[in-house]
Design goal:
The complex is a heterodimer. Chain A is an alpha/beta fold. Helices cover about 30% and strands about 20% of the residues of chain A. The chains are: A alpha/beta, B alpha/beta.
């Protein structure tokens, strides 16, 4: 174990009280469903893996890390531990690592994954300075695994039962030697599930040790509501001790695990609220508004509701933010006349250079594309204009604004009047 | 959620992920799942009911008509024929020999009496089975009377509520295009489809359209007129709300008359506004559009400050939405979002896949979406998702209230307009009021004991003890002096072929109430889904308690091949879902008519379970063509005893069976107190004093606590005696027990009034070997004292009383002893002992007011109204169904019995014993005193 590695609190009990770590919650999706896991994303009172108060984009993660580092110079480790799996959507994970590695090359990087879809990225991870990888292996026998996983999504297929467990296991096992070959420390997590794998975990230990894993962590399951295992009895501490003792005969045991949240920050077991507040701050700064373009253009019949269709609107109403949650209309601009083909949308963009977004009830895919080229975000919305503007100005998920029947037009051929009034009009 | 959702229902429950939910729907309800759905008949009745100048005749037994009599909030600007309930009230004889001839006479009588613009004839389950040629009768009457007479194929087993919509649309389609408009139709003319003018909502919409410059040609069907509907094909556009019910008709009109349609919703400002703009866009007139924009601006601007103030206070609350049609669910999600309320459980009875896609897209990840749900699921999801508000209908209300959740009624019974901008304001106010009321401080966090008695009892003897006994129906009961003509002749419609406003509901209702009086018992009706649903709604409105009733959910194939498979599926599912101590099975008109042998089914079911522990299986035969809810109640009591009592056992000193009859939960509690005070150990059959009037809960209880445990009932034969209440009751459970095991049966009247209470207490005294306990003696003394104090206000006042047979006999006994003149004693019951028993308890009244009293058995409210009008009572005593009569006659109504749908506390009304009599006496005195005071020109405050 090199000097650098010894500062990782999860791999070294001695450093747990000294060196802080940060989990960057950039991986919302998961590619498997463990029967004990529920990734409820919004509860600050719940502390367990799979939980985070927000999911960040890679750029936001970098900003967040920067601010935490300023406040906490003893920060030694940055990791990605969900709330889903880092390799369910590897692009987000890799982009985050690239950004962070460029800015903080000295930081220790770690990842916690189920191992699925990891293999092909191992070389790149090594280049990006990832030195610690944790793989959760609950079983090395697909028959046991079948009891633990509801489904596994592998190569765009959803597998169930033994087939699912087998696919997952195969991926996990082939990753361990390759990770070792790439010079990384490999930790194996096993969730202890009484009645399912308590006698099996020692076999897991033997197997992963043989493949080269460095350290192992046996974690008693945390019973979580609204999961298939919600009614299960948690393993007794004597059982946990017994299994750990058996495991320790074969592999170095890590037993100070605190089952952290996907957005944990601070010392292990002592999350720092002041640091966590930085996460909220980053989220609070979100906006879809681009500097220099303070306005949003809205298609509306009466300046209260979003109800104009882009192709149909005669004018655009220009809104600005007056104060938190308060918006006002600063004027109205006439839409370029139809009949110009795509030029109409370029012309529209030209008169909306001071706007960041165009808010309409619906629009075809083509104008959306043209406007995007011109730096204008097309937002499909419904209901009160103010509510939609709130979402745009605060960088919220815009998908939720969409009217119930959006995106159904434009493809109707002859039937489509392009007026957003439905295909039977 | 695992054990709340039956295996076969799993596909109909989904959780939203990434704006999607994989859900199955449009399936028949699963037998035994306690679906919230109704039946085909219900669907048809819902759609056509608001046509106000047509006769709506329900061809079948009286229950189907009784449950749909004037319970909806749909209002008329003119005629109110729709608020009457007409039924051929089929009897056993009709079922055997056919009801077509009766239908013909009924139609002829009704058309002659009311001169309607059209008549709709609804075929119920039984009609489909006995094969009455309804079409021919309708054609004949149409030719004879010159008005459209339209059959509606609404047999409950023919599919779901949606098929009922289609049957109704079919009838409407036959009307449309049969008349031409008199005046030229204005260019911007539309029909409104699928608004039922609940609480006058249609008038609100009409005003919006008028302000825009749009003319409404026809309203289908809210505030609907037959002739307008016949001319509807001349509109330029159909605007369709509640697409589930009306899309069939809209498509028909598009194909046949080229009238295009638009689907809209009027709930929430977003959808309401879109509806107006869509109509403007259709006509393509910029003036129309500008007017719509002006209207929306005015209305929304006026509404916004209010919405914002509510949103500030409501943000963060979480809602469950479960309504009939998914279109409404979609609108409600948006309307709630406007108020800052997130929807965490969203469902509907009849949603289509595309509706659920839309719902999933609107909802946050983790939202539960559910199709054709039931109380167990809904309560579980509501709790899991932390909801504190429920938007639903009457059947969902007790689920919400028992769990301490706020509730907003968004169903057809509501009397508050929720459509349009005005409706949005009402909705916000209603939601706010229910969420913010301080009563939750008391109701939540008050934990009560969970889990009733659960006993595992093997299969039960299944003889015919639980069947309705043929009562030798006396259709014509004469007045006390023999001077009155037969009641059927008194009927204003001058035809015994039709019952107008039934004074009874159907037999399974009584059976289900009785079954709820056995601990851990869940009722199952072997018949169409609607029987269970109607009964649930009707009883919930009275008791204001959860009333889960399962159904074997008949489908057409079961009607042809027998319902045995559905029956055992139903039992399986019920056992899985409720783990009941007992299942009370009652039959329906349908299963009786097709000849399903429930006794055999139960034996086969028990045998197929091969010794696996089973709940006690109780059964009652309850075809409504043979009896009323009272007969069903008594049949169930007999069935409970016959199904559970197996042996004489050891005699238990001091143990007494009390068969109290259909009294209120408060009455039952009083009986138990009285028995205890006499030192008697009472076995009440049934005892729903807690199951139908229980405390507030922390968690939803699948089966409410209370009821007499099965093992207690099993010991009933060892009691020293059975007290069987009800002078008119023949072949009751007590009689059966006496015949089967020799347990002596004492037959007494309902203890209402001093004398009947004395008789009851004397019996207890004899059995308990002790005199009337002091505090009851004091109550008795005070009652007599009050008789004296009040007699000046009472003497000779004329009273009309109606209701269940024994209740009327009891009230008549009270009236008799306090000097009132019971000029009319009426019951819808078919019991031939009724008249005799009324006469037996009213000797003083007959002496003091000779020749004045009329007794009507097997009658309907129409007849009661007509006779009351002639007899001019000063006071009316009965259930809520007499309100219209009281209002018309301008006399007070003292509400007793069942149902009490227009006051709170029906379940707490005390009728029996000295204490109950005191309560009734005070109510009667005060009602008369208040009437005198109110009608006095002076208005003394000292009387």
């Amino acid at each position: 174990m090199n000097a650098n590695a010894e500062r990782h609190p999860c791999f070294n009990h001695g450093s747990a009280g000294k060196y802080a770590r940060i989990h960057l919650p950039v991986a919302p999706e998961c590619n498997i469903q463990c029967n004990y896991c529920n990734r409820k994303c919004d509860c600050v009172n719940e502390s367990r893996p799979g939980v985070t108060s927000a999911v960040l984009s890679p750029a936001e993660a970098l900003r967040y890390l920067g601010r935490v580092k300023e406040k906490a110079p003893h920060l030694a480790v940055a990791g990605i531990a969900g709330p889903g799996d880092p390799f369910a959507d590897p692009a987000r994970t890799l982009e985050t690592l690239e950004l962070v590695h460029a800015a903080y090359p000295d930081l220790i990087f770690c990842l916690s994954t189920n191992g699925l879809n990891l293999y092909d990225h191992i070389d790149r991870l090594a280049e990006l300075g990832v030195s610690h990888v944790t793989i959760t292996v609950n079983a090395v026998d697909a028959a046991v695994g079948a009891k633990i996983y509801a489904w596994v999504r592998h190569k765009k297929r959803v597998l169930r039962g033994t087939e699912a467990a087998q696919a997952l296991l195969a991926e996990q096992l082939r990753c361990i030697p390759k990770l070792k070959a790439a010079g990384m420390l490999v930790k194996i997590n096993s969730i202890l599930l009484a009645g399912i794998n308590e006698t099996h975990i020692p076999e897991v230990a033997k197997k992963v040790k043989a493949l080269g894993a460095d350290i192992m962590n046996v974690i008693p399951v945390l019973i979580t509501e609204d999961t298939a295992f919600a009614e299960m009895m948690p393993p007794s501490s004597s059982l946990t001790d017994k299994v750990r003792a058996e495991v320790a005969q074969d592999i170095t045991l890590m037993s100070h695990c605190r089952r952290c949240r996907a957005d944990a920050v601070g010392l292990l077991g002592k999350d720092d609220p002041a640091l966590h507040a930085e996460l909220d701050r980053v989220v609070g700064e979100r906006t879809w508004i681009v500097p220099g373009r303070p306005y949003v253009a809205v298609a509306t019949h009466e300046r209260l509701l979003v109800n104009g269709h882009l192709g149909d609107a005669k004018e655009m109403h220009i809104f600005e933010r007056r104060s938190e949650g308060r918006y006002g209309c600063v004027g109205m601009r006439e839409m370029p006349l139809p009949g110009l083909g795509d030029n109409r949308w370029h012309a529209l963009a030209a008169i909306l250079r001071d706007c960041s977004a165009v808010l309409v009830s619906d629009a075809g895919a083509k104008p959306e594309e043209v406007l995007a080229e011109e730096g204008l975000l097309l937002v499909r919305g419904s209901g009160l204009i103010d509510a939609c503007l709130n979402a745009i100005y605060s960088g919220a998920d815009l998908k939720k604004l969409e009217p119930a029947h959006a995106r159904q037009c434009g493809g109707g051929g002859d039937k489509c009047g392009g007026n957003g009034m439905g295909c039977c009009a | 959620m695992s054990n709340a959702v039956l295996e076969k229902r799993r596909a109909q429950v989904a959780t939203v992920r990434d704006g999607k939910a994989d859900i199955a729907c449009a399936k028949p309800s699963l037998a035994g799942s306690v679906s919230q759905r109704a039946c085909v008949f219900c669907g048809s009745r819902v759609v056509l009911y608001p046509i106000v100048d047509a006769v709506h005749l329900v061809h079948g037994p009286a229950g189907c008509a009784a449950y749909t009599w004037d319970i909806r909030g749909t209002v008329s600007s003119g005629p109110e024929l729709h608020r009457l309930s007409f039924t051929t009230d089929l009897r056993e004889r009709d079922v055997i020999f056919g009801g077509a001839e009766k239908l013909e006479r009924a139609l002829r009588a009704l058309i002659a009496r009311y001169s309607p613009k059209a008549a709709f004839v609804y075929a119920t389950c039984i009609v489909g089975v006995i094969g009455d040629d309804v079409d021919s009768v309708c054609a004949k009457l149409a030719a004879e009377t010159g008005i459209p007479v339209l059959p509606v194929r609404s047999e409950g087993f023919r599919g779901s509520k949606k098929d009922g919509y289609a049957a109704a649309c079919d009838a409407l389609a036959r009307l449309i295009g049969t008349l031409e408009p008199v005046d030229p139709v204005p260019p911007y003319s539309i029909n409104i489809l699928g608004d039922f003018n609940l609480a006058g909502e249609l008038w609100i919409l009409e005003e919006y359209y008028r302000r825009m410059g749009v003319h409404i040609l026809t309203r289908i069907t809210g505030d609907g007129r037959v002739d307008d509907i016949r001319r509807a094909h001349r509109a330029k556009l159909n605007v369709v709300q509640c697409s589930g019910s009306m899309t069939t008709l809209a498509h028909h009109m598009q194909e046949t008359y080229g009238v295009p349609f638009k689907q809209v919703s009027y709930f929430g400002i977003e959808d309401m506004s879109a509806a107006l703009y869509d109509v403007a866009a259709f006509f393509g007139d910029p003036v129309l559009h500008a007017k719509a924009a002006e209207l929306v601006r005015d209305e929304v601007t006026g509404l916004l400050p209010l919405i914002e103030s509510y949103r500030a206070r409501l943000t963060g609350h979480k809602a469950v939405i479960y309504v009939g049609g998914a279109f409404k669910t979609i609108s409600l999600i948006k309307a709630l979002r406007l108020l800052g309320i997130e929807t965490v459980v969203a469902g509907s009875q009849t949603g289509r896949p595309e509706d659920y896609d839309t719902i999933a897209a609107l909802c946050e990840p983790g939202t539960v979406i559910v199709d054709d749900s039931n109380p167990v699921e809904l309560s579980t999801f509501a709790r899991e998702r932390g909801a504190d508000l429920f938007i639903g209908g009457v059947k969902e209300r007790p689920i919400a209230f028992k769990m301490g959740m706020a509730f907003c009624d968004h169903n057809h019974e509501r009397k508050l307009p929720l459509a349009g901008y005005e409706g949005m304001k009402n909705f916000a106010e209603e939601v706010y009021a229910s969420l913010m009321t301080p009563v939750w401080q008391s109701a939540r966090g008050q934990r009560t004991e969970v889990g009733g008695q659960k006993t595992e009892v093997g299969s039960r003897r299944t003889d015919d003890a639980g069947a309705i006994q043929p009562s030798g129906v006396a259709r014509h009961v004469l007045g006390a002096e023999g001077s009155c003509p037969p009641s059927s002749v008194l009927r204003p419609h001058a035809s015994d072929a039709v019952t107008v406003n039934p004074c009874k509901v159907c037999a399974p209702l009584g059976a289900c109430v009785a079954f709820r009086g056995v601990a851990g018992c869940i009722p199952l009706i072997h018949g169409s889904q609607g029987c269970a649903t109607y009964i649930r709604r009707y009883t919930i409105s009275h008791f204001r308690e959860p009333m889960d009733i399962a159904s074997s959910s008949f489908v057409e194939s079961a009607t042809v091949f027998g319902g045995s498979a559905l029956f055992s599926t139903g039992l399986d599912n019920l056992i899985k879902l409720y783990s009941p101590a007992a299942i009370g099975v009652c039959t329906s008109c349908l299963s009786e008519t097709i000849g399903d042998d429930v006794a055999l089914f139960l034996r086969e079911y028990a045998a197929s379970r091969k010794g696996a522990p089973l709940p006690a299986l109780i059964r009652a035969s309850t075809p409504s063509y043979k009896g009323t809810h009272m007969d069903g109640f008594h049949a169930a009591v007999r069935g409970i005893l016959a199904g559970i009592v197996k042996e004489r056992g050891a005699a238990v000193p001091g143990q007494v069976n009390l068969l109290p009859g259909f009294v209120s939960p408060a009455d039952l509690r009083y009986f138990k107190e009285l028995l205890a005070d006499f030192g008697l150990d009472g076995i009440l059959v049934p005892d729903y004093s807690e199951t139908l009037d229980g405390p507030s809960w922390e968690e939803y209880h699948r089966l409410p606590e209370g009821g007499t445990p099965v093992e207690r009932i099993a010991a009933a034969a060892g009691s020293v005696a059975t007290l069987q209440l009800g002078h008119t009751l023949r072949d009751g459970g007590g009689d059966w027990l006496e015949q089967a095991f020799g347990t002596p049966c004492r037959r007494l009247g309902l203890p209402i009034g001093l004398r009947e209470s004395d008789a009851f207490c004397d019996a207890l005294s004899a059995l308990g070997g002790r005199p009337l306990p002091a505090r009851h003696a004091l109550e008795r003394g005070r009652l007599i004292d009050s008789y004296v104090d009040g007699h000046k206000y009472l003497f000779g006042k004329r009273v009309a009383v109606y209701g269940e047979e024994d209740l009327v006999v009891g009230i008549a006994a009270l009236l008799n002893e306090i000097g009132l003149n019971p000029v009319l004693c009426a019951s819808g019951g078919m019991n031939d002992a009724f008249k005799e028993q009324v006469l037996a308890v009213t000797g003083d009244a007959q002496r003091l007011f000779p020749g004045e009293m009329e007794v009507l058995a097997d009658t309907d409210y129409d007849t009661i109204f007509a006779r009351a009008e002639a007899l001019k009572p000063d006071l009316i005593i009965g259930n809520s169904k007499g309100y219209k009569m009281a209002r018309k006659l301008g006399v007070p109504l003292v509400r007793v019995g069942f149902p009490i749908h227009d006051r709170i506390g029906g379940q707490r009304q005390l009728h029996v014993g000295y204490r109950g009599t005191q309560n009734l006496f005070d109510l009667i005195c005060n009602a008369l005193m208040q009437a005198k005071q109110d009608t006095s020109p002076i208005g003394f405050m000292y009387v």
